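User: Quick sanity check before I run a bigger batch. Here is a single chain. Can you write out its predicted 3D structure?
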Amino acid sequence: MSSAAATPGKARHTDSRQTESGRVGTWLQRLESPVTTYYVLLSVTGVLVVIGLIMVLSASSIVSYKASDSSYTIAMRQAQFAAVGAVFMAIASRISVARWKLLAVPALLAAMVLQLLVFTPLGKSVNGNTNWIGVGGMTLQPSEIGKLGLVLFGAAVLTRKRKLLGSVKHVVVPYLFPFAIGAIGLVLLGHDLGTVIVMCAIVAAVLFTAGVSWKLFAGGVAGFAAMAVTMVLTSPNRLARFDVWLGRDTNPYGAARQPLHGRYALADGGWWGVGLGASREKWQWLSEPHNDFIYAIIGEELGLPGTLVVLGLFAALALVCYRIVLRTDDLFVRLATGGVMAWIVVQAVVNIGAVIGLLPVIGVPLPLVSSGGSSLVTTMIALGMLLSFARSEPGCAEALAARPSVVRRSLAVLPTLSVGRARKGNR
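Assistant: Done. Predicted structure follows.
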C-alpha cells in the first residue's frame, strides 16, 4: 500500500521534471531563432543608451548649471546626439555587406584627412591632448571615425588576402603599413594615449580573427609597449597619473583627486546606492562626472546592482558579437565584428578599470554611456553595421519582413477595440 501511495508522487515528480526540461528546450529553441542576434543586439544597445542618457542627466546637472544656468544643457545635447546616432544606426543596419566593403577605403581616408585638421587652427586641445576639431560651437573627434575606418579597412584588405595571410609581408602591407600605422600615428601626435590603446586593440583583434602568425603579435606587443613607455616617460601629466596609480601620490588636491573621489563615490554607494540624482561627488568633487568617471556616479547612485547591470550589458554585447562571428561564413563579417567587439569591450575595460583603480587613469569614455557626441554617434554606427550583419544571417531578413512593425501592430489593435466597444454598446 505504501508503494502504491508513493507511485503517484514519483509520477508527479517525473512530470514536473519533464515540464521543466520542456521549458528549457523551448528557450534553447528560441535562442536558435535567426532573429535572436538582431533583437538582442538592438535591445542591449538601446538599454545602454537609455542608461547613459539618464546618468548623464544626473551626473552633469551641477556642472551644467554652473556653466549655463541650466541643469539640462549637457543632457539635452547628449539626447540630440543620441537621436542623430539612432538615425545613422538605422541607416547603417540597412546597408548591405557588399556596400560596407566599398566604404572601407573612403572611411579610413576621410578619418585621416580629418585627423590632419586637428593640427590646423581648427584643432582644439583638452588636458594636453590635441584630438578635436572645433567648427563654430560644435566639436568633432576624428579619431572616433578612425576606429571605424580601421575596422572596415582591415576587414576588407585581409578578406581579399585571405589565401596569403601566411606571409608576413601580405599581413603588414598595406593594412599595418602605411594605413594603420599612419592613422594611429596621427592620433599619437596629438598625445591621446587612451584612444591609441583602443585603436591598437582594434588592429590586434582584426589580425587575431584573421588567424595571422603569433610572431607578428609578439613583435606588435613589444613595439606597443615601447611606445607606451616612451609616451609615459616624456609626459609629466602621464607620469603623475602613474604615480597616483602606484600609490606614490595620494594628494587629494593634486593629480590623485579624480581617482580618489571616484573610489569615494563607489564606497558611498555601497550595496544599494544613495539614490538616483543624490550623488554628492558630482558637486564639483569629481571634475568629469558625466564623462570618464560616469561609472563612479552609477555606483554611487545605483549601488552594486547598477554597476553589475552595466557590466552585464557589456558582457551581453560581447557575447552577441561572438555569436555573429560563429554563425557567419563571410570572412569580412567575421573580421569586422571582431574589430568592433574589441573596440567596445577594451574601451569599457579601460574606462571601468581606471574608475575602480585597477588601471591608471587614461581618459577614454564609457561606450554608449559617457557624455560625448563623437563617441556616441560613431559607436552607434558601428553597432548598426553589426545589425546589418545580423540581418544577413540566413532567415533573419525574411523573418523580420514577415513581422509587422510596432506601429502597424499598435494601429491594428485600434479597430478591434472600437468594434468590441460597439458590440458591447449594442448589447
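The two ends are 58 Å apart (CA to CA).

User: Great, the batch can go ahead then.
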